[in-house]
Amino acid sequence: MTRLLNICITICILFLFSTSAFADRTLIIPDLPKQPYRYGFGAYEGVVAHSTATPEAPAINIQKYESRTWRNAFVHYAVDWDEAIQIADTKYIAYG
């Protein structure tokens, strides 16, 4: 029974990641590196998200900042109190 539950959860997670179901908006930064996970393209090992942690700071500020500085680090999602913005493809590694 536990194995069946694990399989169902894995399928749900893969579906959610493949459809950007977590994001309110998708604003993928162009020219990001396409480095696959250790076990290949789309073999998810985790998702990197950055939260603004304050109501006054919008997630779009993170997206704008990382669109200029992505060579140092970038995340898959920027999150504030009201929305989540996907800024990198979850099928590839983000380093943030």
Short description, anyone?
With 96 residues, the chain is α/β, with parallel strands linked by helices.
Describe the protein's architecture and organization.
The structure is a single chain. The chain has one domain (2-86). It contains two helices and four strands. It has helices at 2-18, 59-69; strands at residues 25-26, 49-51, 77-79, 84-86. It has a four-stranded mixed sheet with strand order 1-4-3-2, with helices on one face. The model has no long low-confidence stretch (mean pLDDT 84). Keywords: Signal. Residues 1-23 form the signal peptide. One of its GO terms (molecular function) is N-acetylmuramoyl-L-alanine amidase activity.
Strand order of the largest sheet: 1-4-3-2
In terms of per-residue confidence, which ranges show pLDDT below 50 for 5 or more consecutive residues? none
Structural domains: how many: 1
Report the biggest beta sheet as strand number plus sense, adding barrel if it closes.
4 strands, mixed
